[in-house]
Design a protein that fits this description.
Strand content: 25-35%
Mean pLDDT: 74
Number of strands: 25
Number of domains: 3
Low-confidence stretches: 18-59, 400-428, 470-479
Radius of gyration: 35 Å
Oligomer: single chain
Largest sheet: 5 strands, antiparallel
Number of helices: 9
């Protein structure tokens, strides 16, 4: 008698297995939450939610998502139990061939399992028919937790629910394949206070910047403040990348800090690339934006024309002097146009010194002392304040400021004052510097008598608390190769900056 059910049982079993396989795939694709700890569809992980303050771009599970996962979990478990019940009952029929009561009970279990699976399938179909939103994992804005979401028009909009949302990845190398159907925007949910989110959009896949299109909505850097209702259209975007706005320096290829920017530079080094694939056609940097955090330390930048910091440097940019910033910061802490180089040409930087400036009170015992053969000049807090800068003939300013030292010359090197007396020469009367405090000391040198002076210009930033000497033999314990190189090739110093830094 049971044989007449064989084909029906086989058909139902296969149908159930295929159905639940498709259901699992749908749930995984719909959620896209990047939870790696459990296999689909139970992959509920904490991602960036392990801390008390969720990451601005973390996709933390919401109550809606947990309910959805439980729903899919229950459906899958019920289907698996039903199939296992059919299989076990089938074996029982074969094993208990001489026991009519056991065979009858097994048949009843098979019938009940098939009926339960059919009812489960019809319940899903019924819910999908009544309202697809009941089985699709989407959220309204009111239920969103902090994170990044895809936003789409609600197929069944209400007065307060014009959109639906799905958690989004923090980056996409190909929006055409990664963007879920029915969704068209990026939306950043953040509860103030919190960090702003930066979104880099590209008109090409794999984060490659089109320099011609730079500045268009599909080739730019958006800044979304925390708590903003701003959303970003992905209609013509081929790839995107997101990151929290961090303190430091961002560089732009267009004036006014418009268009696409680099990622943040917080330590001295190469200026980050604007595109995933670097090309020689990359335009020069024309503006930069400084992001500060807190009142004690402020970021400033010194640009250099060489990857290895071996060419001309710019003056310090973003330096505070009282309440004035040099050069002035425009809207969004932007240095609108980079100052030209010493010859009046566009300053095209490839690397940058990133320094931090102490803008509040610091101990008055901090000093920077400059020595020649038998002269010294001590710069103290009243001289330095927040920033001391001088540009010109270093011999002249040092000759005017330095006073006779009470110490006795120890050797011919100290006794030889001819270099200091020849103030019109090309040798700066400076033998070593004692940085007795927390100061950034920036020295600029060049040989203006060379056939091409621009190629001789260089600078060095000295951070450490030590002696900076120009003589290898007599000051082997304190010599600094960077300072020695700075004065080679007939170079002399033409600018000096002293900037206190926080510690």
């Amino acid at each position: 008698m049971f044989k007449k059910y064989n084909h029906l049982i086989l058909f139902v079993s296969l149908f159930v297995l295929v159905f639940f396989a498709l259901t699992n795939i749908q749930s995984v694709l719909a959620l896209e939450l990047n939870y790696p700890t459990l296999p689909a569809p139970f992959n509920i992980g904490w991602n960036d939610c392990s801390s008390s303050v969720p990451s601005p771009t973390g996709n933390c599970p919401t109550l809606t998502q947990y309910i959805a996962y439980i729903f899919y979990f229950a459906v899958v478990v019920a289907g698996i139990i039903g199939v296992l019940s059919i299989i076990i009952s089938g074996f029982q029929i074969l094993l208990y061939a001489g026991n009519p009561s056991a065979i009858s009970a097994a048949k009843e279990r098979i019938f009940g399992s098939v009926l339960g699976i059919i009812l489960l399938m019809f319940s899903l179909v019924l819910l999908q028919t009544i309202n697809p939103a009941l089985v699709n994992v989407t959220q309204s804005e009111l239920l969103l937790q902090p994170g990044l979401y895809y936003r789409g028009d609600n197929p069944n909009p209400g007065p307060t629910t014009p959109y639906v949302y799905k958690p989004a990845s923090t980056q996409s190398s190909n929006v055409l394949t990664d963007l879920p159907a029915g969704f068209s925007h990026l939306y950043y949910k953040c509860n103030p206070p919190g960090k702003a989110l930066l979104v880099w959009t590209y008109s090409r896949i794999t984060w490659n910047l089109d320099y011609v299109a730079n500045g268009n909505s599909n080739a730019t850097t958006f800044r979304i403040p925390c708590g903003s209702s701003m959303s970003i259209s992905l209609d013509s975007v081929m790839s995107f990348y997101t990151a929290s706005e961090e303190p430091g320096v961002y560089f732009f290829l267009k004036t006014g800090c418009e268009g696409s920017s680099t990622t943040v530079l917080q330590e001295s080094g190469h200026i980050p690339d604007f595109s995933y694939i670097y090309t020689e056609l990359e335009p020069p940097v024309l503006s930069l934006r400084i992001v500060n955090e807190g009142l004690i330390q402020k970021y400033a930048v010194i640009l250099n024309k060489d990857y290895e910091f071996k060419k001309e440097c710019s003056a310090p940019l973003g330096i505070f002097s009282g309440t004035i910033v040099t050069p002035p910061l425009e809207e969004g802490n932007c240095i609108n146009v980079l100052p030209p180089d010493k010859d009046g040409n566009i300053f095209n930087p490839f690397s940058a010194y990133i320094i931090k400036q102490h803008v509040q009170e610091y101990p008055s015992i901090y000093t920077a002392t400059f020595y020649s053969g038998n002269l010294e000049a001590k710069f103290e807090k009243p001289n330095i304040k927040q920033w001391y800068s001088y540009e010109g003939n270093m011999n002249l300013i040092f000759t005017n400021r330095w006073q006779d030292s009470s110490r006795v010359p120890l050797d011919a090197w100290y006794a030889d004052q001819s270099k200091c007396k020849n103030i019109v020469g090309d040798y700066t009367c400076l033998n070593y510097i004692e940085n007795d405090g927390f100061f950034n000391i920036i020295l600029y040198s060049s040989n203006e008598n060379a056939p091409n002076p621009s190629r001789t210009r260089s600078c060095e930033v000295f951070f450490s608390e030590n002696l900076i000497a120009d003589d290898l033999d007599l000051h082997s314990d304190y010599n600094n190769a960077s300072y020695i190189n700075l004065l080679q090739g007939g170079r002399s110093l033409y600018r000096m900056d002293i900037i206190p830094y926080p510690k």
